[in-house]
C-alpha cells in the first residue's frame, strides 16, 4: 500500500502476538517501521515471532512482555522500548454479562486493560515523541466506542472512554507534529473468531456462509468481516503524510454498522 516511508521509526503495538495487533504490526513493518510487539506472556514462541517478523520484513523487532492491567508495567514497556514514534494501543479483553451480574473483577480488568493502559502508555510515550518532534498515537477502539450492545457494559464503557481519551490527547498535542486517532473496528476475522464458526454452524444448523451473514454479522450491514490487514492498513495510513491533519477523530472499519 505504501513504500517504506516509516524507516527509522519505532512502533510499539500492545497486545500484538496475535489477531488485530499482529496484523497491525505486520503492516507497520511492511512500511519499514521497527517494532516492539507485546503481550502478557513470555514464551519462546513470542520471541520466535519477533524473529520471524524481523526476517520477513527486514526490520528490527523486539518482543517485550508486559501485563497491560498494571499501570507500572505499561509505562515500563515504553521505557524498555527506548524509542516510541508510533504507539498503537490495541490490548483488550471482553466479558459478557448483565450489569447486575457482572463480576467486579472482570469489570476492573476490562477497564484496566482496554482503557487505563492507553493512558499509561501515552503518558510515557509523549515525552519521547516531543523530543523527536514527531509522533503518531493510534488507539484501537471499537464500533462499541460509538454505539452499544446489551451485556457488554464494561467493554462499551472502556471503548467510549478510549474515544474520549483520544480526543483529549489530540487537543493537548494539536500544535505539535503529533496526532492521536481511534480506529473503530466492527467484527474482524481473527483466529479467535474463526474458531467460533464451526460451533455456531452446529448450534444453528447452518452452513458457514449462512451463519456468518445471519448470525455473526447480523449487525454489520456489509455482511462481511473486516480483516486484520484492513485494520493494519488503516493504521499505516494514519502514520502517513496524507494524515498529518487528521487528529482527534474516529475511523470506523465496520461495514456500515455505525451508519445504522
Keywords:
260 residues, alpha/beta, Rossmann fold, 7-stranded parallel β-sheet, two-stranded parallel sheet, 9 helices, 9 strands, 16% strand, EC 1.1.1.30, 3-hydroxybutyrate dehydrogenase
Description of the molecule:
- This protein folds into two domains: 10-187 and 226-253, 3-Layer(aba) Sandwich (Rossmann fold); 190-224.
- The chain has a seven-stranded parallel sheet with strand order 3-2-1-4-5-6-9, with helices on both faces. Strands 7-8 form a two-stranded parallel sheet.
- Helix 1 packs across helix 9 (228-238) and helix 4 packs parallel to helix 5 (153-172).
- It contains nine helices and nine strands.
- Helices cover 45% and strands 16% of the residues.
Topology, pairings included?
Elements: E1 10-13, H1 19-30, E2 34-39, H2 44-57, E3 61-65, H3 71-81, E4 86-89, H4 104-132, E5 135-140, H5 153-172, E6 178-185, E7 188-189, H6 191-194, H7 197-204, H8 208-216, E8 226-227, H9 228-238, E9 250-253
Parallel strand pairs: 1-2, 1-4, 2-3, 4-5, 5-6, 6-9, 7-8
Helix pairs in contact: 1-9, 3-4, 4-5, 7-8
GO biological process, one term: monocarboxylic acid metabolic process
Protein name: 3-hydroxybutyrate dehydrogenase
Keywords: Oxidoreductase
